[in-house]
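Review the following:
>
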Amino acid sequence: MHGSTRRCGSRERGRDVNVWRRFRKQKIAVAGAVVIVVVTLAGIFAPFLAPHGVGEMTSEFMATFSRKHYLGTDNTGFDLYSRLLFGIRTSLLASLIAVGLALTGGMLLGLLSGYIGGWLDTVLMRSTDAIMALPGLLMAMAVVGVLGHGVVNAMIGLSVAFMPGFARLVRGQVLAVKEESFVEAARVIGAGSPRIIRKHILPNIASPLIVQTFVSIGFALLAEGALAYIGLSVQPPDASLGNLLQQGFQFINQTPRLMLVPGAVIVLLSLSFNAVADGIRDAMANKERIIEAELAVGAQA
C-alpha cells in the first residue's frame, strides 16, 4: 500500500512537471510572465530605483528626456520616471487587493452554494445575478460614493463586482467534483465535510481558479486605471497608472508622452496577465486530458 501511495505521489509530481514544461513551450505566455515579473520588481523596488520621491517637485517643468529625467517631467515639475515606478506599485497592489477580496468571498459563496445546495444555493445565486446585472465600474462607483474616495474603497467596490464571477465558477466546479467517486468514497469511510472540501474538492478546482485570478488581475488594472482617471481612486500627490493617465491627458497635444507612457504600461500589463492565463489554461487542459487517459487505461486493465 505504501508503494502504491508513493507511485501515485510520484505520478502527480510528474504531471506537475509536465504542466510547467508545456507552459514554457508557449512563447507568448512566457513573454507575458517575464513582463509581469520585471514590472512587478520595478514597482516593489521603486523607492530604490526612483531618483525622486513620488511627491518631490523639481525646478524643471515639461522637460524632455535627459540623463537627469529619463522620461522627462510634467507641468508641475514631477519626474515622470519616478512617478511611473510608484504608480506601478500602487496599481498592482490595488489590483491584487481587489482580486484577492473577490477570490476569497467568491470562493466562500461558491463552496456554500455548490456543496450545500438547496435554498441557500438559490438565494446566493440570485444575489450574484443581481450584482452581475450592474456594470462593474458602476458598482465600484456606488461603493466609493458610500465609503468615500480612496484606493482601498475603490478596490472594495471592484471586488464586489468581481466576486459573482468567482462564486459562479467555484459553484459549477464544486457541483461537478462532489459527484465524483473519490468524494463518495471519502464520505463512506467517514470523512466530514470540512475534510472533503479541504482534501478533495479544493485541489480539484484550483486550476480554473488560477486562470480566472490572472484574467481578473488584468481587468482590475484596467478598471483601477478608469477609476483613478475619473478621480475616485488614488488622489494626488500619490501616483497610480490611472491618475498619471488622467494628468497626462490634459497635455496630449503638446506632450503626448505624459499620457502614452502610463497608458502603454497599463495595456502591456493587462495583456501580459491575460497571456499568462491563456498559457496556464492550455497547460492545465493537457494535464486533465492525460489524467482522463490514465483513468481510462486503468479501467480497461
